[in-house]
Design a protein that fits this description.
Blueprint: H1 2-11, H2 13-24, E1 28-29, E2 41-43, E3 52-54, H3 61-79, H4 97-110, H5 116-153, H6 157-172, H7 191-194, H8 199-219, H9 224-232, H10 239-244, H11 253-273
Parallel strand pairs: 1-3
Antiparallel strand pairs: 2-3
Length: about 270
């Protein structure tokens, strides 16, 4: 908790204040107990109520990053609390911006405090997460598009499973061996049912956050007001219009390249430590 507050505070005292409010109002459930659902999420009820956060905290490094992620969602909601309840929530392309950015702030803070061996372990997890939240989610979205088209034309579970298996083969190539039972994996992915086509928001949001973080590393504290203003807009403007007002052209390949450059840098850093 202290590490997360510290990481947010180094960037902006406003962000740290929003995160602390979740705790001071006892709007967080972190205890692991029998009967409690697994996973983690942030729930915003209205602009005037501090968001509620659920995590299952066991003290592992991944749990700390999960806490930063969910508090990022809470920060996003509070930054936009002056908006109408109709437009407080960020649109899907921006929904994962603050959560991922908060994780990056934590990682940046921790990387200056730990040994090379600890950094190797953390970097390995980080690179795994980047793959899972950018590329894998992109392939999930491709599958969703294909599956919905099939369903519209009439299909079977076996045919959908065949489409999913082909998707996995393109995704992983010859890097892993896929057993036949992976074909039905799609039926175990909740987002396909609960929030169809949400997966692309992870890809978009993570790349966006990486690009914004790269800009922060270049501009320093001068970047902070623009970032908070982006969060404060909630869902009141289209993402492309909102971001363009702060000099970010999401139609430009150069903007997205900054995100991929971050990933390349982390892979090179890990290689240098091995």
């Amino acid at each position: 908790m202290k590490l997360v507050f510290e990481s947010l505070g180094k960037f902006s005292s406003t962000l740290e204040e929003y995160a602390r409010k979740v705790f001071s109002e006892n709007h967080i459930d972190s205890e692991v107990r029998q009967g409690k659902r697994d996973g983690a999420f942030c729930s915003t009820l209205s602009p005037k109520i501090t968001p509620y956060v659920l995590v299952n905290f066991t003290g592992k490094t991944r749990d700390v990053f999960t806490l930063a992620h969910e508090l990022g969602h809470a920060i996003h909601s509070q930054a936009a609390q002056d908006r109408s309840i109709l437009v407080q929530d960020a649109p899907l392309p921006l929904a994962e911006t603050a959560s991922t950015f908060s994780e990056l702030l934590l990682y940046d803070n921790l990387s200056n405090k730990i040994s090379d061996n600890e950094k190797k372990a953390m970097l390995s997890e980080k690179i795994d997460d980047l793959y899972a939240t950018i590329l894998r989610q992109s392939f999930f979205t491709i599958f969703e598009v294909d599956a919905h088209k099939q369903i519209g034309e009439g299909t079977t579970i076996d045919e959908i499973s065949k489409t999913y298996m082909n998707n996995l083969k393109v995704q992983f190539g010859n890097s892993v061996s896929l057993s036949d039972d992976f074909a039905i994996e799609w039926s175990c992915i909740p987002h396909f049912y609960h929030t169809p086509f949400y997966c692309y928001a992870y890809s978009f949001g993570n790349l966006l956050a990486l690009s914004l973080f790269q800009r922060y590393k270049k501009e320093g504290k001068d970047f902070v007001p623009a970032y908070i203003s982006i969060l404060a807009a909630g869902g009141s403007k289209k993402p492309e219009k909102l971001l363009s007002e702060y000099g970010f052209d999401i139609t430009s390949p150069k903007f997205w390249q900054e995100g991929f450059d971050y990933v390349k840098t982390q892979v090179k850093t890990l290689s240098s430590l091995n």
